[in-house]
Amino acid sequence: MIKGIIFDLDGTLVRLPIKYDKIFTKLQDLFNTQDEFKPLIQTIIKKANNDSKIIKKAFDIICEEEVIAANNFKAVDDSIDTLNYFKNKNYSLCLVTMQCMKAAKIVLDKMQISELFSSVITRDISSDRSIQIKESVNFLSFFPDEVMVVGDRIHDVVSAKQVGCTPVLFNKNKVDSFNDCKVISELLQLMNPNFLT
Which of 84, 114, 133, 197 is most buried, by the most CB atoms less than 10 A from its CB? Predict the structure, then answer.
């Protein structure tokens, strides 16, 4: 039985208009390369050869753009209602995000939902989604199979399964084409009792 729910932020609860083209240009300058930075975080870590100073500089570049985007975010339909519904039903809620804490804090404060989450794990703590999920589960002191993970990317599903959690994919485009877990097109669908058993 599900006791806790871990939500992803960007693409799940909000849409952040992050200007990735600006980030890519600045990162190409930092690393003196014309290579593409996709996937973003993994490429930075690989190119930096685990040099923490370079990684910090790169992450600061991203954070700067994320903060700008955080001041112009759009909440996903029914995200606040969904969070409040589960909180009122005594589910423990956590947040994981690949954004920096500074940007996440702006969004959470503007939405007035900070107090709904037992923990908020950002890229500053870990840039590995499965570690973010594992840390959240540990914080809740639940078994992994008592925790549901809601995200908008296949990577969220894979990471949740690695930890032993129940994944739900929130992606309108995958409703009829993805069979590895339950797929929803609206957050309100999470309130269906079938998701919570």
Answer: 133
What CATH code is assigned to 4-15+75-196?
3.40.50.1000
Angstrom distances, CA of residue 28 to CA of 18, 43, 44, 104: 17, 11, 10, 25
| Torsion-angle region of 100 (φ positive above 0: left; ψ -120 to 50: alpha; else: beta) | beta
Count of C-beta atoms within a 10 Å radius of residue 54: 16
Q: Above 80 in pLDDT, residue 197? A: no
Residue ranges per domain, the chain?
A: 4-15+75-196, 20-70
Q: What is the spatial distance between Cα 144 and Cα 94, in angstroms, rounded to a whole number?
A: 13
Pair 42, 187: CB distance under 8 Å = no
For the full predicted model, state whether its pTM sits above 0.70.
yes
Whole-number Å distance between alpha carbons of 8 and 145: 18
